[in-house]
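Complex record, two chains
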Amino acid sequence: MTHDLIVLGAGPAGANAALAAAQAGLKVALLDEQDGAGGQVWRQPLPGLTGLPVSAEARSGDALRAEISASSVDLRLSRRIWSVGGRFRVDALGPQGNETVEAPSLIAATGAHERVVPFPGWTLPGVIGLAAATVLIKSQGVTPGRKVVVAGCGPLLVAVAAGILKLGGDVAGIVDLAGRRDWLAALPSLATQPELLGRGLGWAVKIGAGRVPVYFGHAVKAAQGEHALERIVIAPVGRDGAYASGPDITLETDALCIGHGLVPGAEVTKLLRAEHRFDRLRGGFVPVLDAYGRTTVERLLACGDGAGLRGAIIAEQAGRLAGLAAAHDAGVVPADRFAQIADPILAAISRARPFSDAMAGIMALRPAQVAAIAPETVVCRCEDVTRGEIDAAHEAGAHDLNQLKHFTRCGMGPCQGRMCGDVAAELLASKVGSREQAGYWTGRPPLRPVPFDALMGAFDYSDIPIPEPAPL
Amino acid sequence: MKRLVQDERPLVAIMVDGDSISARAGDPLATALALAGRLRLRASPNAGAPRGAFCHMGVCQECLLHVDGALRQACLTPVRAGMAVELRGVP
């Protein structure tokens, strides 16, 4: 064993888990694919850029990165984790090739990725995810286009629009799936976190001052252009997300940033065959956890958005708890001390819950929006599988997600079903009765695509030692 | 795509399908290509439809291209002077 604990993912959850466990005395390895800690939400800005607006997220990220450097945590960045097995062995591809870490405990804090409900033209260059836009704006100082339209649902919508305006860019419109009524309904819950609500209102003021047209209760019906995006067509939708009667509006744009919430990246807990359950509010299938983040597999814990969407504030706290629980299970934190530290953290999580649930509610997948996908629309981008082909596969006998994959190649491409999986499952669920019936794709290594040449490194055939042939 | 903050990193030349393009050293290749007006990075395998970077965080694999002969994700590959980039299936 190289370490006492391996933490996968250095976002708010994973980094705090690693710090808490290291503080309790464990030897911790913390691995992340990006070249800086902070995850996507507190992503490190590119070095060499000046004049990036300083946000609350940037400050939180800087504080976290400083805390990690000052700790005993063995931080390994730019590591693509492609295999997790045994109890536990992690293989990751890093700058020096493949490396292996081993520990008796593992915490999966792998974060979430974006959900985009397909529409005609969503595959055109110039259409990007909302989370993608936050990466460009926050860490690269880049606006996605000259005339950007921001569309979809959830807090990222306003964050991206305000971020572009703050940089000095132009936003041609905001297309919000939610109506004014939905936001008003969420307001009392949002007001439980005055600082975050204030940040949101600040964004709204920025958008108002920028005279950006906001289309509440609208969705993008189509993106059009020959080789890249030139315009979009939007139409009104009902509260359930299905198109409602009303006129189409055409907006000229060279960049559409669109997202419909997030999906937990629970691949590691699925791969290790922990028990999962479907939770629409938390974004999909999530590992079954106790209050401290323990999964149903011994010494395997999970925390943060990868274990169910709850946002950065709860992720930090859940990370601390999981790190502490791992240390307690390793025998280095006695029970009374464990309760003494854990109880206030549990209380803080309950306080943050109404805000987090309200946000998750606005981002949750709307089944009627999925039902409205046209048959010729591409659902699986990697393999060009359309909704019509998915429906036909069900007719032909594909009754769960793994069968659908075998029938159509949906989810079999290089993104490994991350972009289409949630929507494909929802389409199938509408036919087979429930998301539980439709199930989820079996977790298998490699967790991410890894190039063979990078795994093997540089070598010369003549350098390979060839054993003497056995004597006759 | 446009950069709206000051960039102090050196400008370097990279080759894209035989054309020389200037880019900032260390910029993610996907961003550098978009800043140079190259949004279309490949054609989809079955329909041959134009595709470009989509998630900018290493998940979607839409920005796969060849860098110095090896398949790489442009959003995770930093620009280096003299790198040879080949787009896939783009006429």
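Note: Chain A has three domains: 5-113+263-361, 116-260, 373-438.
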